[in-house]
Write a sequence for this structure.
């Protein structure tokens, strides 16, 4: 199960290493979906079409609920994507893609040298990227009476709910996106505030 909140990149980052004449340009992107990761990789390829290799590793999600991808992009098997992924998995970061572009400098590095270079480049860009927290939301629908509206509206705001829609008819219906780890306590407090008159339902995010 995905954590209700987890660390993600707050922006992009770029750094460069020179190893025995070869340039290793590491670029990091926040990528909350696999499509976003693929777009970031394609963008790097398009921006530097003359590079020798564009190796990458990405994680979408966090912890045990991740989708992972990696590529050696023509480097010897296991010398680029796998060590990049090992560094990425140890970085305590989700929704992230790292692309390391290599411009060959004329000197072969060997498998061990490549592993170190791609690992070091990945580690270097991870060290400079700013971080933030991604919050996972649950869509809720609250049915309530007018007499309970002000108190329940304040309760939702206090729990960082994002109000999506309010319908004022015979009763009031509030649709909101609430951090998933707040749903249980908000549901309980709504029952207390309204003496059981209000009702909270969960709904799919759209």
């Amino acid at each position: 199960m995905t954590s209700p909140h987890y660390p993600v990149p707050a922006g992009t980052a770029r750094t460069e290493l020179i190893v025995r004449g070869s340039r290793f340009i590491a670029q990091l992107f926040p990528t909350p979906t696999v499509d976003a990761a693929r777009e970031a990789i394609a963008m790097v390829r398009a921006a530097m079409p003359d590079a020798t290799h564009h190796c990458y590793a990405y994680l979408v999600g966090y912890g045990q609920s991740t989708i992972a991808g990696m590529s050696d992009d023509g480097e010897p098997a296991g010398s680029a994507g796998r060590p990049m992924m090992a560094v990425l998995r140890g970085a305590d970061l989700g929704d992230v893609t790292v692309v390391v572009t290599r411009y060959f400098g004329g000197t072969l590095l060997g498998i061990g040298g490549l592993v170190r270079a791609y690992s070091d480049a990945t580690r270097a860009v991870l060290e400079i990227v700013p971080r933030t927290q991604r919050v996972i939301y649950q869509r809720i629908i609250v049915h309530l009476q007018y007499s309970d509206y002000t108190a329940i509206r304040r309760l939702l705001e206090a729990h960082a709910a994002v109000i999506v829609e309010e319908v004022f008819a015979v009763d009031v219906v509030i649709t909101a996106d609430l951090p998933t780890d707040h749903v249980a306590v908000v549901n309980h407090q709504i029952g207390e505030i309204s003496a059981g008159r209000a009702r909270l339902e969960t709904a799919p995010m759209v």
User: Anything to note?
Assistant: The mean pLDDT is 95. The chain is about 30% helix and 40% strand.
